[in-house]
Amino acid sequence: MRYGFEQYNQHGYLKTPVLLWLGWFFLTRAWVVFVVAGASRQEGSNILQWVYPDHQMLYIGLGMGLPIVVSMWLIGLRKPEYSLLDKVVKHFRTVTLFVILGQIAHTLYIVKQQYWQFSWTNALTLVLLAWFCIYLVNSRYVLDCLATQKNKT
């Protein structure tokens, strides 16, 4: 047995690693800003204007984050009787990698629009995206977590 009993949930699947959840939350940062702006009624438009001066960047971020939001929702619905969901979940790693590559391209586009001037937010974003991409590619636990359950009864 590769993993301990405490690393499995009540349905027999490996628990989703905390670093994967944190990476997914980072990829959905446009959704987080959108929800926070919506929750703060009067100041919502000011928050959106401050974080996303160009509304197109918000819409692009929401579009790129949508597959991750759906992934986060579906990973919580996994049960042995939902075999179709297992087939979908096993592709989340690939989907996440494509979203990361899209966000790297999007961030590089923003940096190009700023005439390649250094910005801590863009630098930190690129470093975190690169780190999360390396983590997804190298992590055996993530691969096993998103794999189909083998011992169906």
TrEMBL record:
Record-linked InterPro entries: DUF2919
Keywords, ordered alphabetically: Membrane, Transmembrane, Transmembrane helix
A Pfam family: DUF2919
Membrane-spanning segments: 12-37, 57-75, 95-111, 123-143
Name of the featured protein: DUF2919 domain-containing protein
Species whose genome carries this gene: Vibrio gelatinilyticus
